[in-house]
Amino acid sequence: MALSRQLLAFSVVGTIGFAVDAATLYAAMTVLGTGLYVGRVISYLAAATTTWALNRRFTFHGQRSSVRIKEWGRFLAANAVGGLVNYGTYAALVATQPTAAAHPVIGVAAGSLAGLALNFMLSRYLVFRGGPRN
Known about the structure:
Distance between the termini: 6 Å
Structural class: mainly alpha
Strand content: under 5%
Number of strands: 0
Shape: elongated
Number of domains: 1
Largest sheet: none
Order of helices and strands: HHHHH
Radius of gyration: 15 Å
């Protein structure tokens, strides 16, 4: 798959990940009683696992590894950098912007966009490296 098509597919998967992230955050806060920060750690892990599985199947199908657990671990480790950018953006917004604190989905969206390009490059070149690239 060409780079531009991979980036588009990665973005679509990211949109699904955003929905999982936001829904899990609200569920964690409502059902589990977590706050804004612990809830986001839980929701980030749920979204990262979802996006790994979807990117593995659709975006980087020809580049995936045969050892899933190692690939998932590499995905989480490599995307931790993008995750820190994502979480930092989220935390800064909910801590300083009353609107973002009242509607944390704003912080989730801003964080997701902030980490997108970095996560794509790390995924393409460090995680899904089992096959040919265009």
